[in-house]
Design a protein that fits this description.
The protein has about 280 residues and is mainly α. The protein is about 65% helix and about 0% strand.
Length: about 280
């Protein structure tokens, strides 16, 4: 066995991260995270001022998914290199605050922390709402594991919440900074009605995408939905949870082809005699 084949990456088969990210329902979580991230004026400003997200939205989405998969399932070296690429991109990007005119870096620690927390909390929250059974200790374990992902993009783990309580406290503290800016409204509208890929087409792709985007929005915390001028009612939470469970069940019936990064992780785990209990095709708890 080569050194690369013996490398099980940042987390490994026994980690909560491998378990959670084996769930294809996390595609919904990624959209939820984007809705959340858009509510931070500086975070969304950094995106709209530095990217043409409307033109390359699908490519951008797939690049982000590939990055997350690499961090979770790739070798340690692959994850490290992926993080370095992200840092190099962020290092040269600047944006201007629409309120004050102040120029700022998009890799300010506060912004990186916002993106990280909304992402990992969305992954975890969506998985649980969709029916993935995790204990409170496993939830905290996931947040603690993901400090390694935060460090890859240049964050000091000491400033990143590493438990469910820490994340809840962080959200309470950051909420006064959030707002429904015109940029946030545009991003939210785009997430609901993006152009469909040519191979899929508008008529065929629109209904399933509306189900995904609508579920992702419904899974937002009530305070985030209220910022979007949408109801923060408990009934919305119930409907969104049922929708997430239904989508997970439907996805479980589809012939999903596992990606090369994931397949290679399974191969390395088997070579190490540590076959994971949870795979994409397994909905059993």
């Amino acid at each position: 066995m080569t050194e690369a084949e013996a490398d099980l990456g940042l987390f490994g088969p026994e980690s909560v991260s491998w378990r959670v990210h084996a769930e294809p329902i996390l595609w919904v979580a990624g959209i939820r995270a984007l809705y959340l991230q858009a509510l931070h004026p500086r975070a969304v400003g950094g995106v709209v001022q530095n990217t043409d997200f409307r033109r390359d939205s699908w490519a951008r989405l797939f690049r982000t998914a590939e990055y997350v998969t690499t961090v979770v399932y790739g070798t340690t070296e692959d994850a490290r290199k992926a993080g370095q690429r992200v840092q190099r991109i962020h290092d040269r990007l600047r944006a201007r605050d629409p309120e004050t005119g102040e120029e700022y870096r998009v890799d300010e620690p506060g912004l990186l922390r916002w993106v990280h927390v909304t992402e990992v909390e969305s992954f975890l929250s969506t998985a649980r709402r969709a029916g993935v059974r995790l204990t409170d200790d496993e939830v905290d374990g996931y947040y603690s594991e993901q400090l390694r992902a935060a460090e890859l993009v240049g964050l000091d783990p000491a400033i990143v919440p590493a438990s469910a309580a820490g994340v809840a406290n962080y959200y309470r503290g950051v909420r006064p900074e959030l707002a429904l800016t015109p940029a946030a409204r545009d991003v939210a509208r785009f997430l609901l009605f993006p152009p469909m890929p040519r191979k899929i087409g508008w008529t065929v792709g629109r209904p399933p995408w509306l189900a995904v985007a609508g579920t992702a929005f419904g899974l937002l915390p009530p305070w985030a939905r209220r910022l979007y001028k949408a109801p923060g009612l408990p009934t919305t939470d119930i409907v969104a949870g049922l929708s997430a469970r239904s989508l997970r069940a439907v996805i479980g019936l589809l012939p999903i082809r596992e990606g090369p990064i994931y397949r290679d992780a399974m191969r390395r785990a088997e070579l190490a005699g540590a076959t994971p209990r949870y795979r994409h095709s397994n909905l059993a708890e």
